[in-house]
Amino acid sequence: MKLKNIAFWCLLISSLGFGLGAVAQAAEEPTLTSLQETLTEKTVALDTVWVLLAGVLVMFMQAGFAMLETGFTRAKNACNILMKNLMDFSFGSIAYWLIGFGIMFGAGNLFFGTSGFLLKDTGQTFASLDWSTVPLECKYFFQMVFAATAATIVSGAMAERTKFIGYIIYSIIISAFIYPIVGHWIWGGGWLAEIGMWDFAGSTVVHSVGGWIALTGAIMLGPRIGKYNQDGSSNAIPGHSIPLATLGVFILWFGWFGFNPGSTMGAVSDIAHIATTTTLAAAAGAIGAMMLAWKIFGKPDASMALNGVIGGLVAITAPCAFVSAESAIWIGLVVGILIVLSVIFFDKVLHIDDPIGAISAHAVCGAWGTLALGLFAQDVFAPGTTGNGLFFGGGGKLLGAQTLGVLAVFAWCMIAGFLLFFAIKKIVGLRVSKEEELRGLDVGEHGMEAYAGFQIFTTE
Amino acid sequence: MKLKNIAFWCLLISSLGFGLGAVAQAAEEPTLTSLQETLTEKTVALDTVWVLLAGVLVMFMQAGFAMLETGFTRAKNACNILMKNLMDFSFGSIAYWLIGFGIMFGAGNLFFGTSGFLLKDTGQTFASLDWSTVPLECKYFFQMVFAATAATIVSGAMAERTKFIGYIIYSIIISAFIYPIVGHWIWGGGWLAEIGMWDFAGSTVVHSVGGWIALTGAIMLGPRIGKYNQDGSSNAIPGHSIPLATLGVFILWFGWFGFNPGSTMGAVSDIAHIATTTTLAAAAGAIGAMMLAWKIFGKPDASMALNGVIGGLVAITAPCAFVSAESAIWIGLVVGILIVLSVIFFDKVLHIDDPIGAISAHAVCGAWGTLALGLFAQDVFAPGTTGNGLFFGGGGKLLGAQTLGVLAVFAWCMIAGFLLFFAIKKIVGLRVSKEEELRGLDVGEHGMEAYAGFQIFTTE
Amino acid sequence: MKLKNIAFWCLLISSLGFGLGAVAQAAEEPTLTSLQETLTEKTVALDTVWVLLAGVLVMFMQAGFAMLETGFTRAKNACNILMKNLMDFSFGSIAYWLIGFGIMFGAGNLFFGTSGFLLKDTGQTFASLDWSTVPLECKYFFQMVFAATAATIVSGAMAERTKFIGYIIYSIIISAFIYPIVGHWIWGGGWLAEIGMWDFAGSTVVHSVGGWIALTGAIMLGPRIGKYNQDGSSNAIPGHSIPLATLGVFILWFGWFGFNPGSTMGAVSDIAHIATTTTLAAAAGAIGAMMLAWKIFGKPDASMALNGVIGGLVAITAPCAFVSAESAIWIGLVVGILIVLSVIFFDKVLHIDDPIGAISAHAVCGAWGTLALGLFAQDVFAPGTTGNGLFFGGGGKLLGAQTLGVLAVFAWCMIAGFLLFFAIKKIVGLRVSKEEELRGLDVGEHGMEAYAGFQIFTTE
After folding, report:
1. Considering the entire predicted model, what is its pTM?
2. Domains within chain C, CATH numbers bracketed
3. For chain C, first and last CA: distance in Å?
4. Which of B40, B131, B254 sits opposite A14 (nearest CB)?
5. Could you tell me the end-to-end alpha-carbon distance of chain B, in angstroms, rounded to an integer?
6. What is the ipTM of this complex?
7. Which residues are B228's β-sheet partners?
8. Segments of chain A scoring below 50 in pLDDT
9. Cys staple from B202: which of B206, B212, B217, C358, with CB 3.0 to 4.6 Å?
10. The predicted structure's pLDDT at residue C223
11. Rg (CA), chain A
């Protein structure tokens, strides 16, 4: 605390206009100890700059989700989905500060933390994060934007029919409890970490959690009016702005360069490798999904390519630091196939209405990425951590731990999600009225229109 | 200058293809002195990387303002408001380089700088910024994007009725003179700094300045046609794209992580605390404004929540480095109330037509944030600077200085603003013709439409 | 590799929950050697953080191009142009990893590299990049986003009439071969570097390459239906969303602060000077173009001002590190004139239909910027590199080399471009059918609409 404040004093005192300027600096002879102290201080500053900027990029992913979800839904519900994105971040950031961060990283047991609420730190509270040199609030900031990501994923699958008050309640509960508990298991020194499960930046911790809860929400809500016909066939309900959706995907891709490389939580040159695997997997996901959609539907559908990017990013999130560039491309290409089939499966077979494909992109691809770590990991990229995966001679032990992790998180999210949405349904109601849904949630929930002055068709 | 250029030489010479590669490096034995020199050089590089990237984030806020203002106004005026945002940054950056930076930070008297135009530096010229190690042009860049922010705020309140030539003139005058003079008072070693007023990142310096000038502009222009009825009641004129407005708010929130933490003007780990207070205040502002709007209007209005974010960010800008996370939340919650009441007050009571709520968000919340510093500051966060505020046992002295600063800046901006707009009115005219206003400024001022090919209602 | 991994081990091992915390750190006494090693390691980390973040900003320019091109074209072709932007980045990043990077920077001859495919490095392979300390994958990442920029420029001039399959093919060929060959000449130790041509961040390498290939594409395609009348006069075909186009320009401006300052490929304080010249030239470009358009057309046209920003940014890209702030403003002002006249010339005189003005902004302004380096360069900014240009007493030698470079790249791109598009035309066809063009490429190529639910005029 002291060392850094000396610089800060100088900064502020002189900004008072005392005109002292850069006086104190370096008047004395350097010693080995003084140099080392300065070097340590500057290393912390460098780490903080990196992790904070990475966190800021992740924060901007909220804009990406907002644009993606808005673009892929109808104009009459645009304000609602935008407000949802804005408010889940607002409520989530405070809820995670109050409670979630303590549950996730505070000292406790193998299942959840029981200390560290409001970032109160006795010095031992956050031992699970001692490996990073950055200040506690930098850890909070970086982890908070992750929590907000998990919460915001859910809304995509529940779009165009959920009561606004329901959004707010579940955002708080997910950010404060459901997400941090999984986080504790894997990143906070919990039981999944103990059995050797790895998830570098959160394919499971963040994306699958969001995705599986989204699944429970979509099931509890039922499909939008007009989505499925009597004969069981499904109608496409096209989104109202592909430009906004595409912008959203570019913003997400951009932000993911904070999400994955930033998860080093320190400035190390490995971030270059992580950025490389991240972008190659996303590119391969887009290519794979576009190709398969072209083959199946006869035309290269933009929505599928966009979801391919997201799926690729989600899948590489767990293994990004542990696999080669070649493996990243393979992981992405598999995503391309998986996401197209998954979207079709949930829609046509299961009749679960997920307006933007959040379940396929986040839950399914998140599970795939977590398992892919068990297949493609190579000891050389982070020696002494994951060891080799199945495809590189490491046997099935790692894959087993990954599988167990995927299943455990699936089970937890399904149970917690159903309980959550059941409670909301009973207490305040989960779904808007039929009239409101037809008219649009913008007018019904918020008393306003998204595009005043534009002519909009209102077919349902 | 020399040290850094050695690296730069190597870089460029070898890029010539001479194939020398990384030759020179580290052939010699290190000494204490050589290590310290290298460490100092790298510290400057780290500081420069941080401040420059922070400045780049602030620059991107121009896109945020452009989207916010465009989204909250009508489609027929979209090109005009966009062009305004583009051109105020363009003219502003050059005007600030030519004149503004010298007035703000150049050596001079307690009221304005009288040297340092075109960044000419005799070595003593910019003593008021000597506390930061970064190169002069980095200081210029970071301060320039702040100046452009102050200038761009004004246009929101004057939207949909101002002549384009008027925008250009006032952008130049604000960036070159009005804003830098206030900046000199508080950040350039001027009289308000002397009496102990603090404004870490510019609630008053940037936002209130923009906001109060906006107020004079809105008064001088009068309301848009159709805004107020004969009986004194007010009509809502809804914006044409809530998605763009929301995107704008997310971009602004994103950019504010350059605005506030970057105001350290050096890489220090305190940036984590600043980012934390910044985001919590914004979140609390959104929550507070949404809640109150819900209570007053019966529905959670999106515009109010969006303005709550901006208001929260504006308010925390002054105290972000000096207050606790808890205090930041309180400051934000008060913003939530303040902004809703302020918007209603200016609209319904004073009949001042501010299309996007710029006066409330920037002037009122900026004043609140500056005063809040006097209430919530705690010595522990930046020892030896502000001391404790009123709520933490520091007595009323700090609050007194803050109040004086708020009032002085208010007075200066009102006088300068009225003179400025009066002069523009006399010389080139301030407001477009009634016909042009009804038809839209896009066609009238720019000979084009924002959405060619879309059907747009033209009600006024 | 070892040093950095120690930190990484600690990081990951402890994240397993072993609770070791920050143990190892600094138990031993520091020595001169240990301090120097740590300092070197941290310098690499700092350089990597900077270059990676700069690359991430450049990556985001893809969103900028997507929004700019979409906004400046018609609603019926929006999905197509968006998909193109998404897929050229996806294919390009993999193609450049597979082939392009090796051709550009791998050891080979004066004309192209013949090694280093898939980033395979024998230790001598990438000697042309040894001047930068960052890891190889960081170099790849930074250069890859440049390659993708060159490829994406082309689509703007070919918008609204090109077959989607054609886009994909040329994106791959440009990223893998055409662009990297020019890159090798100038940045990879090739013949233009040998003769003393300079291009700091790619006015010629990136922008002119994209722009000249765009020219060949536009010629080979012919104009859009309805663009030119029988009498030879030209019709304006206005873009459908100036807000998106403006957002795109702001994103590009934002990303350019990675493009130019990041081209130091290391953290040096010169980045401040580069950012300053960059923004001043862009501002001057906007002002110049707006003024001239105002004079010629009677109104300040938004499209011209937006293109003025792009042109200014393109032009300053080559000389940004070598010229003064004053010179940057002059370079930008000339752009303002050049781009307006160039757009008129290509449209009215040559009847080459370039929907977004890509040829003028990238090829013409890129050539201008490369020549301007020969006029305005001053030895003082990067001693021992370019020397002084013509206007600063350096004689015409530098200008001669620049001119030769511009001409050589023009010739190469025209030849390669024509061959490329001729081949595509013969093999899969380059242009969509007349029916599809009239109906829009969104439905024809992708089976979808960009704005489902909005009323859109379909005049052609």
Report:
1. 0.95
2. 37-446 (1.10.3430.10)
3. 59
4. B131
5. 59
6. 0.94
7. B234
8. 1-26, 460
9. B206
10. 97
11. 23
